[in-house]
Amino acid sequence: MAFRLAQNAVQRSSHCLLVGLNAPALAMVRTRRAGGTLSSSLTQPSTSQGKIRTSDDLPRIKTREMLYRMFIKGYYNRLHELQLYEKQLYGPMYTVGTGNFNAIALSSVELLEELLRKDEKFPSRGDMSLWTEYRDLRGIGYGPFTEEGEKWYKLRTVLNKRMLHPKDSVKYGDVVNKVVGDLIKRIYHLRQTSPTGDLVTNLSNELYRFSLEGISSILFETRIGCLQEEIPVETQDFIDSIARMFSYSMHVVMLPKWSRNLLPFYGRYISGWEGIFKFSRKLIDMKMEAIQKRVDTDQEVDGEYLTYLLSNTNMTISEVYGSVAELLLAGVDTTSNTMMWTMYLLSRDLAVQDILYQEVSRCIPEDNIPSAQDVHRMPYLKAVVKEALRLYPVVPMNGRLMVENDVIIGGHSFPKKTTFTMCHYAISQDEKTFPEPSKFKPERWIRDGRARPNPFGSIPFGFGVRGCVGRRIAELEMYLALSQIIKLFEIRPDPRVGEVKALNRTVLVADRQVNLHFLERTEEIAAL
Ligand code: HEM
């Protein structure tokens, strides 16, 4: 139970990617130069006095220690910082092992690369029963998060189309720009009604509304009113349902099954799912009806993502419900928090903000609105978001379960069914890969002939075939919104808020409300 507590405390993300925890260890890993080949110690099991090294040769964090750190030292909501602490204590590879469960934590770029280059054909993140239980109960299909094996592969092949290729996302430029336009209107409105005339308070909430509206307008091909002054009742119910499902996930995984009928938490968790599916179902059914009408009257069926899923694939309606819900849940707080961290970092670095402004105004003269194609001419904008994601990888930890084969990592041999925890936060803070790691330096990512960091040093969207399916959509939303905002405003921190720290909740979120001043570029900055 003790281990279950600790394990579950980290398995609560919308991305539900966190597998295993931490543990001590000093793996004798030889480093490799970027672009070089792996040294033989990484590909062959090493031996100590003739014995092949295994997880038994790694330092192991005991349940007692883990619980002490999590709950007494208070790392339970700062698991990303715990990665740094434990890396310092034990080195880049260590075991968390209790009872039947073993997870190998990896926190160096070399080990991460070695693991991901050995990814299996159908990579797995491990147990997703927290999300599948409700669907099994209601007969709803699984989506890309929860599906596994060959079925997952087939599903991804369908879902990747019209979403993952950079040229696919360009198609959504106009849809996203309409939502960005509403965000800008809302910023103007909030500034005007603020005491100073330029302040936007609780930015995370505003960006959450923006991301939900953005992803819904792509997935449902319908606007749901998140950016209106008065959010429609059904949309508000939907937002509350998402929040309820996430906040009670914790209770569901932590408490034993027999307590479900005695305590109110499981019921609330299930009612969260009910609300999510009720809303999604309604919008999907409406689209289905509209498509049917067009087919019945011999009209051409046009539309984007949902239309494609409903009319151009062999997916059943239940599979569409399952997949759309997962895409939606995965795409909101990841994107909104990344935007929040990016704007927070920009507000504290006027020099970077100025370079970005110069780039945007050079590419988008006068009152023009940046388009999806324009973004390709803005490398600094991309570098700013990439650097924000390095400093605040909203998914700071992720898991891989090697299902099919035994594997050798860092000279240690692990049997199949071993779970690995990839400690992305610690890896992206490593000063060997990123000199002055705590500094916000977008120029690290500019291709100007200088050596660039090892690409595995920061992979905020994951890697390979199981990597984020929504990456291009998320980037498009962030680029279009940030470029418009920076073109119109200089953003400054609210001095009353002070330094904001990250908490590891559903994803990395701010530990307090973030407020920013939005100074209109023309008159207001000149007047200062
Ligand atoms: C800044 C925004 C985002 C970040 C940083 C992010 C990050 C990630 C990461 C790290 C993974 C796991 C990859 C792996 O295991 O290798 C993932 C998976 C996933 N993401 Fe995202 N994501 C973002 C936005 C989105 C959006 C907008 C959507 C939906 C359109 C989305 C849908 C998904 C789905 C469905 C998966 C599971 C894929 C699978 O298991 O096959 N994400 N994301």
Commentary on this structure:
- By secondary structure, this protein is α+β, with helices and mostly antiparallel strands.
- Helix content is 48%, strand content 9%.
- The protein has helices at residues 2-10, 40-43, 63-72, 79-90, 109-117, 129-138, 149-160, 166-170, 173-192, 203-219, 233-254, 265-296, 305-311, 317-331, 333-347, 350-363, 379-391, 424-428, 471-488, 523-527, and strands spanning 47-48, 51-52, 60-61, 93-98, 101-106, 199-200, 398-401, 407-409, 412-414, 419-422, 489-493, 502-504, 508-510, 516-520.
- Strands 3-4-5-10-7 form a five-stranded mixed sheet. A three-stranded antiparallel sheet has the order 6-14-11.
- A hairpin with a 2-residue loop joins strand 8 and strand 9.
- Residues 15, 17, 125, 144-145, 156, 215, 326-327, 330-331, 334-335, 338, 394-395, 398, 460-463, 466-470, 473-474 line the site of protoporphyrin IX containing FE.
- Protoporphyrin IX containing FE binds next to helix 14, helix 15 and helix 19.
